[in-house]
Task: inverse folding
């Protein structure tokens, strides 16, 4: 498949996810949690990704027993789930950060918490440092911006992190 077709599929999936998120946020629940995997490269479902995603979703369901699952699917961007919660968004984000840091591979989980239609809770709002790069442990945003690591290095590290979740 051509890179243009990949780009079209990724863009369509991103737009569909954003529409679903916007509809969910407009319902006005105190907290909305968007769960996905942050996997580099075109393969958004390598071996172990499904098991990691399921483990993360199970931990979220256990951590937030009153949450309601709005959607769970797998598209061109990979696995995702959307939950709404009647809980303080800052407390939800703190617990999500704990889940993201609970296992080396959990760093591949992306747990985005929203407090309203326009406000995403970030680590900075809790006085925490930005996410660390899983290749070198520097701020991930700096590594992405400067392209400190090749895509081959990043994908190799991702596959290494997923090894315990392969069947």
Result:
């Amino acid at each position: 498949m051509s890179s243009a077709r990949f780009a079209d599929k990724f863009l369509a999936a991103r737009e569909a996810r954003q529409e679903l998120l916007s509809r969910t946020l407009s319902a006005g629940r105190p907290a909305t949690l968007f769960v996905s995997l942050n996997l580099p490269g075109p393969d958004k479902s390598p071996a172990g990704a499904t098991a990691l995603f399921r483990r993360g979703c199970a931990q979220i369901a256990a951590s937030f027993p009153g949450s309601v699952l709005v959607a769970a699917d797998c598209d061109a961007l990979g696995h995702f789930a959307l939950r709404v919660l009647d809980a303080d968004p800052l407390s939800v984000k703190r617990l999500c950060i704990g889940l993201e840091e609970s296992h080396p591979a959990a760093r591949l989980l992306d747990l985005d918490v929203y407090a309203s239609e326009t406000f995403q809770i970030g680590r900075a709002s809790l006085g925490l440092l930005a996410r660390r790069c899983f290749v070198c442990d520097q701020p991930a945003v700096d590594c992405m911006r400067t392209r400190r690591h090749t895509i081959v290095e990043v994908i190799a590290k991702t596959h290494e992190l997923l090894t315990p979740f392969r069947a």
Observations:
- The chain is about 40% helix and 20% strand.
